[in-house]
Amino acid sequence: MEQEIKKLMSKELEHFHCSILLEEIREKIRILKDYGIDDGEILSSMSEKDLFPQIMITNDYKIILSGEKCVEVIMEPLIKAVYLLFLSHPEGIILKLLPDFNKELQTIYLSLRPKGMTERVEKSIHDVTNPALNSINEKCARIRRIFMDVLPHHIANFYAITGKRGEAKRIELVQSKIIWECKYPINRE
After folding, report:
1. Which of 13, 46, 123, 139 has the highest count of CB atoms within 10 angstroms of its CB?
2. Which of these, 13, 79, 96, 61, lies nearest to 186 by C-alpha position?
3. How far is CA 184 from CA 49, 88, 153, 189, in A?
4. pLDDT-based confidence at 25, cuts 50/70/90?
5. pLDDT given for residue 185 in this prediction
6. Burial per residue of 143-159, b for 16 or more beta-carbon CB atoms within 10 angstroms, e otherwise
7. Collapsing DSSP states into helix, strand and coil, what is residue 53?
8. How far, in Å, CA of 151 to CA of 153, rounded?
């Protein structure tokens, strides 16, 4: 009798977990539809193997997309620093709180360019973390274009920094597709 109760509880727990997973899938499908992906494309993509390539951040901070062939995603140092900042914060960043991330962005930039920072770069980092300026939106647009050049457009959106006005901006790619080889200064769990 006790084992039957345990089996029933296990089945109920399994059913509960499945319902949570299904709701997550429904939410992701809603996001895909918001990006303009139609039902047919969603269904056909579910059968494709490795639809979303893994992204690897190497020890020397190269950004590599794996797939049938590996592709390095080339970015200027400040653009790459912004991308790594958002990649290391999967919960997203609310743009009006960007000043709180100034030091972290400087640290990431210094990892990419260990020779130091010029006054011009310091000002650029300050501009990027100043929500009153458009610099962060320009960087996000550049990042989106870079990924659009190397990935199909409906997939590239998941690698770009996105989000609705007033809400946290983030990279939608699932964490299991992100491989970090590098260590400090990237702040991640």
Report:
1. 139
2. 61
3. 33, 11, 32, 12
4. confident
5. 56
6. bbebbeebbeebbbbbb
7. coil
8. 6
Confidence (pLDDT) at 43: 65
Distance from C-alpha of 40 to C-alpha of 181, rounded to nearest angstrom = 36
Could you read off the pLDDT of 76-103 as tens digits, one per residue? 999 999 999 999 999 999 999 999 999 9
Q: How confident is the model at residue 189 (pLDDT cuts 50, 70, 90)?
A: very low
| Cis amide bond preceding 152, omega within 30 | no
- Residue 53 makes CB contacts below 8 A (sequence gap 6+) with 65, 66, 67, 151, 177
Looking only at the bridges linking them, the beta strands covering 71-73 and 63-65 are antiparallel
Domain range summary for the chain, segments of one domain joined by +:
2-46, 55-180
User: Distance between CA 70 and CA 56 in Å, rounded?
Assistant: 10
Q: Cα dihedral angle (83, 84, 90, 92), rounded to 10 degrees?
A: -50
* Distance between CA atoms of residues 95 and 119, nearest Å: 23
Instruction: Output the CA torsion 139→140→146→149 (10° steps).
Output: -140
